[in-house]
Amino acid sequence: MRQIAVLPYRTAGGAGEASPMILLITSRETRRWIVPKGNPMKGLAPHEAAAVEAKEEAGVVGEIRPTALGSYRYLKRRGSGASVWAVVDVFPLAVTEELRTWDEQHERERRWFSPAEAADAVDEPDLAALIREFGDCE
């Protein structure tokens, strides 16, 4: 199974200081920290679908890059109780606006983290590595 995700970020700090901040959201059921993600959408390029997920799940919009940072794997639980490996392509999104209201605001929490804190907060080792790498090079 293939999915798409977004790594929402913004640059914080004063003049001459540019440390990126990463936005994570909670999952609906387990309340663990994740990135906005979903399934590819017909008629949209993968990065465009990822931007739609960011708006629906995290209430953020911005400039999405068409090239994925990389991918990570996780075990996705099906409604039947079975689990399947999902491979998730992650696209960086430079957040330009945080919406005051959005589709899933009552189902999720959103919070800004430093790259190191975000990497520590997520459960998936490959996603944590992507976040650390992104924080080092942004």
From TrEMBL:
Ranges for domain Nudix hydrolase: 1-135
Any Gene Ontology biological process: adenosine 5'-(hexahydrogen pentaphosphate) catabolic process
UniProt-listed Gene3D superfamilies: Nucleoside Triphosphate Pyrophosphohydrolase
Any GO MF annotation of the entry: endopolyphosphatase activity
Name of the featured protein: Nudix hydrolase domain-containing protein
Keywords from the named record: Hydrolase, Magnesium, Metal-binding
PANTHER family: DIPHOSPHOINOSITOL POLYPHOSPHATE PHOSPHOHYDROLASE (PTHR12629), DIPHOSPHOINOSITOL-POLYPHOSPHATE DIPHOSPHATASE (PTHR12629:SF0)
Gene Ontology, cellular component aspect: cytoplasm
Cofactor(s) annotated in UniProt: Mg(2+)
Organism: Novosphingobium endophyticum
